[in-house]
Write a structure and sequence with these properties.
33% of the residues lie in helices and 18% in strands. By secondary structure, it is α/β, with parallel strands linked by helices. Strands 4-3-5-6-8-7-13 form a seven-stranded mixed beta sheet, sandwiched between helices. The protein has a six-stranded parallel beta sheet with strand order 16-15-17-18-20-19, with helices on both faces. A four-stranded mixed beta sheet has the order 10-12-11-14, with no helix packed on it. Strand 7, helix 6 and strand 8 form a beta-alpha-beta unit. Helix 3 runs parallel beside helix 4, helix 14 packs across helix 18 and helix 15 packs parallel to helix 16. Bound molecules: thiamine diphosphate (TPP) and iron/sulfur cluster (3 copies). One iron/sulfur cluster (SF4) binds next to loops.
């Protein structure tokens, strides 16, 4: 963080962390996921005053933060948009309670799915859960709205949602810093109407939720969380929120703008007043027509998604194009910016990634594989194309059970494999493993491969229950306690052994689990002496190339007619997999390694 005279240039994530700190927050929880990982990473810097943790999953994270709020302190829980699905069960009931210590749920939405499996507009979730929703448009607002969210939550006894999008999470702007405010812990006074959500107590809570949203709608009328910027002579009003507001400002159209910071509830009194003043209302928002629908539900005639895409990020050019369609501007300032699609480059496993040999082996096995979420989701992509189904965290093992039952009942005995990472195993995989044993047909051919790379790699390498030194829970021990009998452990850098075990277990008619135990090459900075190709031995079979390790490529050597394989020594981390798949031993290590690979 860059600090200067009480100002700093912060990302949206850092600003939220700062807002929590300044706002007297005491307990912050999260489960890692892009784009919100940076919030807890930054809160760690305030650990002297604030407790924070990456919890086992989003549901647990929310429950810990809920506990802190019940206890009377200010708490925050952050997660990526799909994390809210995992936390939905406690969330939908928590929102019925009377909030004691201020509580803010941060949801990191991902328009355009830069690092997500779906595009989900959680403003809809916030409304569904009867929460009030804040939507900042820069880092300053991200900080201020976090503080304000804690205050409003306490004052109106309502859980607040702060919705932020990927670009804002990661982009930087100047933020004014303030001192931390000391907030006294509020007493916890048992009251079933407030905290025990079962009828008759929860019946009353329905009226309470309605009342507090009505009060917030009154508050929304003139709160400075919303900003009305009127232009003389303008006959069009654009209602907007979030980052797209900044694009609109840059375009400098001749319109008045009502920028919402509090996007739910919206003051209909205010909107009705504005509706009388303006000939036309246009809504500019990313993803779903949330504000547009709110207005239409209340009888306000407006247009939005007719002009702006319902999916993906809205870039400045998209906003400008929409304004042209809406007849608001005629000239395009940004039309000269030619948006060339970047050359398509699929993501791929890092040099030396432990997942690579497993996928190389599975491709050769030509078996149906159900994937899961993690770096290994790249098993969907070329050149492996091994995963045939990939849905959400922890889903693979349960889908395996369903497919197996269905196929067995229809007489199809083809083997099935499910993949899961160690991070996902602890997040939501364990119930699926327990469920495998429920009404288990001993002959049902199911193979699960657990890719234990000792970290939650895809989200930046957070430890999980097996790699966190304080917890050190062994996956193997846990599976045995559950009652899974056939477990094989293999180091995937030993290619032949891994291949043999995978082949045997796929054939085995029953339930078997393989734990593959190579550490993440990036996180643990794998660096052995690099390998090289002897072109005089290479027969150009491309077996090494098919492993798709980035340093490998076919090239022309002097004195050789055919292209031969080569290895970029700067990129090679010396995992040895290419050498192990070479049928003629053309790949050798530059210097022998002292470490033996078992
Ligand atoms: C519900 C949900 N929460 C968080 C994420 C973000 N996320 C993507 S992959 C992943 C975990 C990956 O860890 P692991 O299973 O160990 O696989 P690795 O990346 O290490 O190969 C997480 C937390 C998500 N996609 N869905
Ligand atoms: S970060 Fe680790 S697990 Fe992910 S692709 Fe790279 S080496 Fe593999
Ligand atoms: S040894 Fe081969 S497979 Fe391993 S990192 Fe180097 S080039 Fe890649
Ligand atoms: S696997 Fe061996 S023989 Fe085949 S292309 Fe690679 S280096 Fe050459």
């Amino acid at each position: 963080m860059h600090l200067e005279e009480n100002k700093a240039v912060l990302t949206g994530n850092q600003a939220i962390a700062r807002g929590f700190y300044e706002g007297g927050g005491l307990v912050a929880t999260s489960y890692p996921g892009s784009p919100t990982v940076g919030i807890i990473e930054t809160i760690k810097e305030y650990e002297e005053s604030v407790y924070c943790e990456f919890s086992t999953n989003e549901k647990v994270a929310l429950e810990v933060a809920m506990g802190a709020s019940f206890a009377g302190v200010r708490s925050l829980c952050s997660m990526k948009h799909v994390g809210v699905n995992i936390a939905a069960d406690p969330l939908m009931t928590f929102t019925q309670t009377t909030i004691n210590g201020g509580f803010v749920l941060i949801t990191g939405d991902d328009p355009g799915m830069h690092s997500s499996q779906n595009e989900q507009d959680n403003r809809v979730f916030g409304k569904f859960a009867n929460m009030a929703i804040l939507d900042p448009s820069d880092s300053q607002e991200a900080k201020e709205f976090t503080k304000k969210g804690l205050e409003l939550s306490e004052k109106h006894h309502i859980p607040m949602m702060l919705r932020i999008t990927s670009r804002l999470c990661h982009s930087r702007s100047v933020v004014e810093l303030q001192e931390r405010k000391d907030v006294k812990t509020k007493p916890f006074e048992p009251d079933p109407y407030k905290y025990c959500m079962l009828p008759p107590y929860s019946d009353k809570a329905q009226y309470f939720m309605k009342e507090r949203l009505e009060k917030l709608e009154e508050y929304a009328y003139d709160t400075n969380l919303n900003r009305l910027e009127e232009k003389e002579g303008a006959n069009t009003l654009i209602i907007t929120s979030g980052l797209v507001y900044e694009h609109l400002k840059e375009i400098e159209a001749n319109v008045s703008v009502y920028k919402l910071g509090l996007v739910y509830p919206i003051s209909m009194k205010k909107i009705n007043e504005l509706n009388k003043k303006y000939e036309k209302i246009v809504v500019l928002e990313e993803m779903m027509p949330f504000i547009e629908n709110e207005l239409k539900l209340n009888g306000i005639s407006c247009k939005g998604k007719e002009y702006f895409s319902f999916t993906g990020e809205l870039q400045i050019e998209d906003v400008e194009e929409g304004l042209v369609k809406a007849g608001i501007i005629q000239e395009r300032k940004f039309k000269e910016i030619e948006r060339k699609d970047p050359p398509s480059r699929s993501p791929q496993f890092c040099s030396g990634c432990p997942h690579r040999p497993i996928y190389d082996i599975l491709k050769k096995e030509k078996v149906n594989v159900i994937g899961d979420i993690g770096c290994y989701s790249m098993g969907i992509l070329f050149p492996f194309e091994v995963h045939h189904i990939n849905i959400s965290m922890g889903a693979g093992v349960s889908i395996l059970k369903g497919m197996r039952k269905a196929w067995d009942l229809s007489g199809n005995k083809k083997p099935l494999v499910a993949m899961i990472g160690d991070g996902t195993f602890f997040h939501s995989g364990i119930p699926g493993f327990i469920n495998l044993l429920h009404k288990l047909d001993k002959n049902a051919n199911m193979t699960v491969i657990i890719l234990d790379n000792q970290t939650t790699a895809m989200t930046g390498g957070q430890p999980n229950a097996s790699s966190d030194k304080e917890m050190d829970i062994k996956i193997n021990d846990l599976l045995k306690i559950i009652g899974i009998e056939r477990i094989q452990i293999v180091n995937q850098y030993n290619y032949e052994k891994a291949k043999k075990i995978i082949h045997e277990e796929i054939k085995y008619e029953g339930l078997s689990v393989i734990i593959a135990t190579g550490p993440c090459a990036l996180q643990f900075r794998m660096r052995h002496f690099h390998f090289y190709v002897d072109p005089n031995i290479c027969i150009s079979c491309r077996s090494c190339i098919k492993t798709n390790c980035p340093p490998l490529q076919m090239k022309k050597y002097e004195g050789h007619e055919k292209l031969k394989s080569s290895i970029d020594p700067d990129m090679c981390v010396g995992c040895s997999i290419c050498a192990q798949v070479c049928p003629v031993n053309a790949i050798k290590q530059s210097r022998p390694d002292s470490k033996e690979r078992e």
